[in-house]
Amino acid sequence: MIYLCSFLVSGGVSVLNNIQRKYFLLCGLSGALTYMAYLFFAKYTNESVASLLACIILAVISQLFAKIAKVPSTIFTIPGIMPIVPGSLLFKAFNFLVEDQYSQALSLGLQVMLVGFSIAIGLILNESITYVLKKKNYFIFNK
């Protein structure tokens, strides 16, 4: 059930970003697979490492889908990243901040920053590794 929700969230983001209808299935699938990877890695590591590894999995998935559909990979990366964005943690951090529970707000706020930073690092690794592989004509990235 949770994978269906991830699929619908990613598909909904693709609709909001005016991505063509024919890519709805691939956008939803990228989000569902990313969240599946996140849940798998979250069992064995903390949230920030799980987000980083899930983002790297998303990078590979979006590159594969981009190669299949012959479109840029950002079409699948942006909707695919939505299920692992730490929105609920940020909401809880601000809720604690409003309730004057500053230590808990600070703890959750730092956790949100770590998860966001790991997502950003994962996307940077995606672009840099893809660039190198395209230059060297390796694997699926050659034209």
UniProtKB/TrEMBL annotation:
It is found in: Cell membrane. Keywords: Cell inner membrane, Cell membrane, Membrane, Transmembrane, Transmembrane helix. This is Threonine/Serine exporter ThrE domain-containing protein. Belongs to the ThrE exporter (TC 2.A.79) family. It is a multi-pass membrane protein. GO terms for cellular component: plasma membrane. One of its GO terms (biological process) is succinate transport. The chain crosses the membrane at residues 23-42, 48-66, 78-98, 110-133. The keyword Lipid metabolism does not apply. Pfam families: ThrE_2. It comes from the Bacteria. The lineage of its organism: Bacteria, Bacillati, Bacillota, Bacilli, Lactobacillales.
